[in-house]
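Second opinion, please. Please look over this fold, written as tokens:

===
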Amino acid sequence: MAPRVGVVLFPGSNCELDVLEAVRLLGGEGEILWHGDDALGGVDAVVVPGGFAHGDYLRPGAIARFSPVMGAVTKFAADGGPVVGICNGFQVLTEAGLLPGALQKNRGLKFVCGPAQLRVESDQSVLTSGVKSGTLLEVPINHFEGNYTCSPETLAQLRDEDRIVLRYVRNPNGSMDDIAGITNGGRNVVGLMPHPERATSELLGSTDGLLLLQSLLQAASGRVAA
């Protein structure tokens, strides 16, 4: 049985179809989860995609965290379910308290869009379990508020617990410690600013995103087997 990946759709999301296509390309089943619903319908993994949830009013993710679906996502994550937030989805996960820290405006107040070289720092997460640490990936970025920040104590904890899963080789946005993606203590929730769903074909410039999303599908398949 193919794993089912639910992709949360907020008003203003714009990357949900890209995620669905990538999931299907890898042999999974993708389905939309409407932000106003308070249940996940038995999916095996959840992706909170990029875009501008609720127009990014107040600040990115600040309104989306109160959508009914986020209560179900929080419970799913607490039960060990695989959850990945991409770009705006990363912002939503930090606002919801599922990941530490925050995403602020890019260094120099500049929007950044283009390919970014990433280094896999840890294979201990649902998004990187199938990729060897030290592997270099090319995955596009597309954001204005992707500058990751946190307290010195949180940064020390992320380092000590091997929870920084991706770093930029050349920091494009001022992100603290070159952080491009982190995971929670349970290793089942990951947030990243780059877009792996946009790196799934040579026609798009890279297939490196498939390596990350394949790990997510494997984690979802584990729940199917269980």
The CA atoms of residues 90 and 191 lie 4 Å apart. The chain has one domain: 4-225.
